[in-house]
Amino acid sequence: MTVTTLPTELTAGTWVADPSHSDAGFTVRHAGISKVRGTVALTEATVTIGADLTTSAVTATLDPATIDTRDAGRDGHLKGADFFDVESFPAWTFTSTSVEGSGAEAVVTGDLTIHGVTRSVELATEFNGTAVDPYGNLRAGFSATTEISRKDFGLTWNATLEAGGLLVGDKVKIAIEISAIKQA
Which distant-in-sequence residues (6+ apart) come within 8 Å of 163 by Cβ? Predict the structure, then answer.
C-alpha cells in the first residue's frame, strides 16, 4: 500500500506559481568534459492539493524562447531549428498523471511535452514548507528534479569532436523551484 499523506501545513486547494519566484534549470554535458547550465522561464504552474496526494495534481508551462545559458550565440542555436525550434514549438508543458509519497517527499509522474514530443517522466519532489509573505499571501515552496534523454524528445542534433565523442550529451538534468500562492 502506498502512503499518500500530505504535510500538515499544506492545505487542500489551488496554489498558483509566482513566475518571478519560480524557475526551471537544466544541466547537460558539453564535449564530454564539462557541464553547461541554463534556465528557462516557468510561465505558469498550478498545484492542486486534494484530500491526500493521490487526489493532487500539477500542471506547468515553460517558455523555451527564454532559454538562457549566459551565451547569446548558444542560446540562439538552442532556440533554432537544430534544437527546440521555438517558432514551431513555443511552449513546453507538464501535466501530472499521479502523485505518490508521504509528508514532504513525493514522486510526481506526468506527461512532459518538449519539441512536440510527449514522454512520461517522474519528478522527485520535495515540499519546502509554507510562509506568509509581506503582502499577506500564503506561499508554499516546492523543489523537483528529474533526468531525461534529449533524444527521447527528438532533440538529436550533435557534432562529432576531433578527438572522438560528441559535443552535446544526451542526458539532461532538470531542477525546478516553485513558490506557489494559495488561491482564495
Answer: none
The C-alpha cell that represents 93 in the structure block: 508543458
DSSP 75: H
Structural domain count of the chain = 1
Q: Rounded to whole angstroms, how far apart are CA atoms 78 and 97?
A: 29
The CATH number for 56's domain is 2.40.128.110
Question: Distance from first CA to last CA of the chain, Å, rounded?
Answer: 33
- pLDDT tens sequence across 121-133: 999 999 999 999 9
Query: pTM of this prediction?
Result: 0.90
d(CA 67, CA 147): 18
On whether residue 108 sits in a domain, the answer given is yes
- Three-state SS at 50: coil
Kindly report, residue by residue over 83-121, the tens digit of the pLDDT: 999 999 999 999 999 999 887 899 999 999 999 999 999
Helix (H, G, I), strand (E, B) or coil at 182: strand
Q: Which SS3 state, helix, strand or coil, does residue 128 take?
A: strand
The label of the residue with cell 539532461 reads 172
The CA distance from 104 to 117, in Å, is 31
CB 23 within 8 A of CB 177: yes
